[in-house]
Amino acid sequence: MRSINNGRVSYQYPDGRFSIHSVISKFQICFFLHVLKNTLETMRNTESNFDNIYKKVIKLCEDNQIVIPPVKKRKVSSKVDCFSSTQNFMDTKEEEMRITVYNVTLDQMINGIDLRFSQETLNMIKSIANVLELNVDDNDITILTKTFHLEAEMLKSEISLLQHTDNVPKSTIKNCDTWIKWLTEFNSGRETIFNNIFKMLKIFITIPVTSCSCERAFSKLSLIKTKLRSTMHQDRLDGLLTMSIEQKLAYNLNIDDIIEQFKILSPSERRMVL
């Protein structure tokens, strides 16, 4: 079954799986990600950006008669920081908003981009773009053969054949859709001749729709949430849930180091922070 939604063409396979065949060039997305990250880093490192935002917020509050709450100096619990000399108190509302809201939000956004779009993924997308431009080097061949399990010499030969083919796609924005349609044109046999390129593009345009991470978290929560849930705090539940979801990391922990740390704790501290 096929449906079109928000510029995307969705396919449903007989076994219920979905894939998205995007009509938007993924190479443009790669470029915009780079621009977005640079913009966020500039905002994070330039104080004038925050100053302008803060002035606009102050003016908006004054125009709408919104009272700005004063800064509350809250002492940090001794369980978190037992040395008073290291505790820091905000003197102004501007400083508080910059440190606890503005900087934290930008840091999370920048780290989120690095986490979701690794350098390996971006290099792979750039290599795909070079293939569509028929301008590849040895590094691109190495990345693509390793990622998509292709034969390096066969891939080089297919690209060389395409470079001497007259009727390859000539659109100004060469995306995967144009190439897939050209390779699978009826009775052309191109998908067989250029088997490695066709396999590479077919895998590249298939993107899973379901949010596996969210579903995994909820399914693990139902397993952890037993009758003991009523006797534990939210922090302990979060810790157990994290350990259950990230089992691979938990299995690789050094048990001896954990035991040594547990031995030096006082009886009141034996319940370690998860």
TrEMBL record:
Pfam families: Dimer_Tnp_hAT. It comes from Macrosiphum euphorbiae. It comes from the Eukaryota. PANTHER family: 52 KDA REPRESSOR OF THE INHIBITOR OF THE PROTEIN KINASE-LIKE PROTEIN-RELATED, DUF4371 DOMAIN-CONTAINING PROTEIN. InterPro entries: HATC_C_dom (IPR008906), IFN-induced_PKR_regulator (IPR052958), RNaseH-like_sf (IPR012337). GO terms for molecular function: protein dimerization activity. Residues 185-249 form the HAT C-terminal dimerisation domain. This is HAT C-terminal dimerisation domain-containing protein.
